[in-house]
Amino acid sequence: MIALASHSRACSSACSSLHTVVRDQLWASFAPAKKSSPRRLTSRSSFCLAPVARTPPSADYRRAFHTTAPLSSQSSSPRISYRVAASASGKGRRFYPSKNSYDFIPDLHPAIGVATDTQDPALRRKRRPDSGEDAFFVSKVGNGDSGAIAFAVADGVGGWAESRVDPADFSHALCGYMAQSALTWDAPAEQLRAKHLLQVGYDQVVADKSIPAGGSTASVGVGLDDGQIELANLGDSGSVLLRLAAVHHYSVPQTHGFNTPYQLSIIPPRMRAQASIFGGAFLEDFPRDAAVTNLQMQHGDVLVLATDGVFDNLNNQDILKLVSSRMVLTGAWTSTEETGIQPSADLHQLTGPEGLAPLLPASSPSPSTSTSSSSKSASPKARDQVYSLQSLIAATIAGEAKLASMDVRRDGPFAKEAQRYYPGDWYRGGKVDDISVVCVIAVEEGYSGPSPSTAN
């Protein structure tokens, strides 16, 4: 792997005022990555453990999620709508928050992250978001107005590149087929389960003759209009639920060993036969191995799904600090001495079509004084765009993970784990990888709680 040189963590400290958070953060504070000399990085383990005898002993990392009440119909539950955005950046590519962020607006597009209107593999490949071997999708469930959504992130296993297989084909196809299955779901939305959706997507990928081999991790979710969300996680992609400036839930990675996550796979018969001759074995997990958890979303909750490009470089507390600062500074979370931190009634506006525009001055000058042609051409376009709170949070997490991955002096979770397993290698810094983030904010219809105008 090639790592880029460390440069300042302007992303996390750029927001000194609310205007800076909303205006500068999305299209100016994430500085593009600069080129640098290569640095040795440990890449993800190969999809194949061959021979089996060489596999280092390791503990069983398969553990259950922290769970809340199971999915059930609750007539008294308030109606919850989900405001969703995604942000992604391929490995070795510059990150542009305005370009690499995607708002899910179901009235305009039934799905984002995938091309559901064509079956042509070449055309679908051309329409992929700039996420590298990572993939994501957000879609409606069914053709009606149930208010239910399906969403997921997937991370193609890079080890397949050694066998001349594009790892992105599997992950993007998996998300594409899951999105199609969710959109064409004709039963009641509460009957769609996250693990079932993962199984259907995997079966269709296996049946796709244009994908002869490959593998991917996945984290899949299905949300109902009463706030109930079911998550199915396979591998080291995962989720974090944040509620009122605290981590309420987080997923536990499923791994066979260090840097070797659970993964869905397609093993060609020829490669399987060769492995059996030499006594080897391929990593081959299935949707039934996914860990399932059920959550009850409340007004103001923020659910983050991300691939290991985020979790290898940011821990849960890092993500909590990023999300909390944006939620508080935009007024989405308010704080008083009497009630403590509470969600705001203005979430409808902050996450709606107007987004964060009302928080900006009527006419704001460009934050950059540069007279270069690139800044002149980019600034008007960026100012014309309307950014929502969910896209701000998704871009903030993706941007900070991007910076951390290139920082040779900042040891992230992956570096600390590598030092524990291989103390002699003295691995330091971040882990350069593809990055994908899906941010889901729960908004209760008719909520009339505290707003920034009444908060002390």
TrEMBL record:
SMART domains per UniProt: PP2C_SIG (SM00331), PP2Cc (SM00332)
Membrane spanning stretches: none
Enzyme class: hydrolase
Ranges of Low complexity composition bias in the record: 357-380
Keyword hit for Manganese: yes
Family affiliation: Belongs to the PP2C family.
InterPro entries, per database record: PPM-type-like_dom_sf (IPR036457), PPM-type_phosphatase-like_dom (IPR001932), PPTC7 (IPR039123)
Region (Disordered): 340-381
Keywords: Hydrolase, Magnesium, Manganese, Metal-binding, Protein phosphatase
The organism's place on the tree of life at top rank: Eukaryota
Organism: Aspergillus indologenus CBS 114.80
Name the UniProt record assigns to this protein: Protein phosphatase
